[in-house]
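Lecture 7 notes. Example A: sequence first, then its structure tokens.
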Amino acid sequence: MFALKELANTSAEEARRSLALMASVAADGVPVVEAVAVGGEAVVEVGGGAYYLAPWIEGDHRRGAEMTPETSFHMGEVLGRVRLALGRPGLLPEGEPRAEAPPSVGTAHERIADYLGIIGGRSELDEFDLAAEPLLRSRIGLIDACAHLRPSGALVGPVGWTHGDCQNWNLIWQGDRIAAVLDWDRVRVNPYGEEVVRAATYQCALADGSLDLECVAAIVAGYRSVVPIGAEALVDAVRRRWWKLLTSVWHLKYHYYQGDRSSDWIFFSDERLLRWWTANLDKVESVFGA
């Protein structure tokens, strides 16, 4: 049995480069599933799309209340091994992260106004429209209230090659151990702090939007047991990640422009996380910065 992955948000060339790393990454102790070559190619381009095939692996995805401090520590260890494996000398060229300033308040307003305009122009609102519209209007007020907290200045902390999308849907668990880290087609140069914060806040988010901060702390501790990272780098990454969540409504692009409703539930899940995180910003930063 196999899993077929259609590439999105990455080129076939980038995916080929990333998938070619799997043997080296596995040798460094990261559990992976290597792509299956088809006609000698790891990535096949057909009908305008690009795909790769990998053996199916049994296991489950876990998140939130399914995590424990012990499994969280183990996840942090795996994240640390990913960093070391991708940082092996000579494996990848040196690079710089994409220079993207945190979105301005004005940019965030424009993004939200676009979708409010779409909703407002409809002759009849559906259930999603009715739920999303008040949240978007409330988000504008929240952005304005938090404008003084927008991160500024240069990135803090080390940067290097990262998995790029190390979150719950790309981790396969068997029992209390990660059996495979999936979807290596987005390997990119990023701040290491961003990789840790993004992974931890996805993995430790509970159904009500709160973060299990004990599990967050365990992920950081597990990561630091393998590779060092300073408190300043993590605190900077927390603020930048929170601001990105506050100013982004990426889910609505798929809903309103592509007719794809698969991310609808994530919009509401992220909204709950955002509200809790905003109310507990100092607490979250102190846990990562401990």
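Example B, a different protein, same format:
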Amino acid sequence: MINEDFILRMKDLSSKTYDTIESSIYKGIIDNTKEIINGMTLEEFAKACFTSKPTILKFCKNIGLSGYSELRYKIRSSDSSKDAIFTELNISKDYNNESFKSKYIEIVKKYADYSSDWFDNNQEEVDKIINQINEGGIIYIYASNLAYSSSRNFFQKMIWGSKFVVLENDITLFESFINQSKENDIFIMISLSGKNPQTKQLINAINGKRKVFGILGPHNISQDKLWTQILVPQWENKLWDNYSVRGQLLINLFDILHFEIFNKI
């Protein structure tokens, strides 16, 4: 049976360091529990967390385990341990079937209204973003996990509209883009939670030298490093520990932005 201390240490470590890599690894365990159970390798898991194998091993040591092999063993050792992981890490909210559906629809509508209202109420910011994009520089987009998937449609439509767009989730490769970027380029940096340590690291690396358009959950990034931003509300947390509705919000925001860009040309 899974060691309760191991779960508590992992949750405690990640909650105290929400803006560092520990939080990303903790979320990686949540997102990839089934894959870990089914034999996900250390290299594969490190890649899923956008970090290195030594960093994963250090995390395991910090929560009292000998390494990744023991982490994987504890997660998949028995049916009861699997249940414990899902219970401890994927904390669902207490709704019955009908109340869940009602709350879900309410939150989906709330996010949909938010995306429309943001464009209606921030026309000056919208014009600033569109003018910069239409200047013809490169649009660099950094996103990971669900945010990356939710950005792909915008990426494709912008390519079809003859815009030069780069969508990337590899932090090392993206750092090279920062170094080779030009003054009229724009960086769209996305973190639906606002707590992705790689996003923060990249924004700090740009350090206000280029225009950074953030689509971010609540964060502690210095405002002088952001040219403009859309704050992502965390209403979905009232429903579950999931980002699917926030992923749809990102799609909605990009759909409206795409229309605005090509409507201005």
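Note on Example B: Residues 131 and 245 are 29 Å apart (CA to CA). The radius of gyration is 20 Å.
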